[in-house]
Amino acid sequence: MSNSPLSGAGMAQAVPARPAPRSFKRRSKRLKAALPYLLVAPAVIYLLMITLYPGVYAIIQSFHEVKFGPWKPVGFANYQKLFGDYQFWGALWNTLVMGSIALVLQCVIALALAFHAYRDPWVKGWRIIFLVPMLFMPSAVAFIFKLVFLDGRIFSDILIRIGLIDANLAIQSSTWMSRALLILADVWQWTPFLFIIFVAALQGQDEEVEEAARLDGASWPAIFFNISLPMMKPVIAVALILRAIDITTMFTNVFIVTKGGPAFGTETISYFIYRTGFKFFNFGYASAASVIMLILTIVIAQMVVKRAFVSARS
Fold first, then answer.
1. Residue 78 in domain
2. pTM higher than 0.85 for the full model?
3. Exposed, middle or buried, 162 (CB in 10 Å: 0-12/13-18/19+)?
4. Rounded to an integer, what distance in angstroms lies between the CA atom of residue 75 and that of residue 203?
5. Rounded distance, CA 118 to CA 168, Å?
6. Same domain for 244 and 105
7. 223 in the same domain as 162
8. Which pLDDT band, with edges at 50, 70 and 90, does 10 fall under?
9. Is residue 66 packed enough to be buried (19+ CB in 10 Å), middle (13-18) or exposed (0-12)?
């Protein structure tokens, strides 16, 4: 009698695979469809925690008198007081003036650098050098400019040795010189941010259009101003909005270099909020100023972006 496992009653018989139940198929399809959302969910929750929650908290706080005791509801009293506060309007004006000048200078310089870096082979090979200022910490840049222009008086000493001036520059006692110092520091550090965006926009344009214009006898400046620049309008608008939002939060340079002086002449809205909240401990009033600034930023950004995209399509 054969002892083979394939013979007789001991022969293993293949069992056909049972089809998966329909409920399992439906569940697997739902899981597959929900998988992208599940992967993104942690990042979304994190962003909501650090943006939405503080925003809602600030809005609620702006309707209360908040110091170190219990919250006291005051309705719109903080906003009414804010609209009559000359220091708030002065900080808003300083932010607008310094931000506008810095933004215009950064845009013009970045466009000029992008034009040459995009076309000139020698400059194109060294474009990474233009990004060096952006790699420094804002606080380090602020301390460098404070040392050169204020504490160390290196800049004044150079001008005295050349013979252009007879005494040290009184930057801290002049509103416009203090503003110019803050603008110079911001332009030096953040022009590379616009530069790299503009270079990427130029590289992404259709080369056939520029080639056709060049065959028609157009010069590089004519091609840039009549073809490349109009095509870059949406990119320029988005880049300027990003920089404008960042400029409205200009705090580090003001805090380290000028402290908002002289006579609140360089106090930005961010420094006003800091001073109100963390020096006078009026957190409800500071939150009201933050909400007003947030609304103004959103409205202006929406108007600029919409206008830029409409003009680009037309």
1. no
2. no
3. exposed
4. 53
5. 41
6. yes
7. yes
8. very low
9. buried
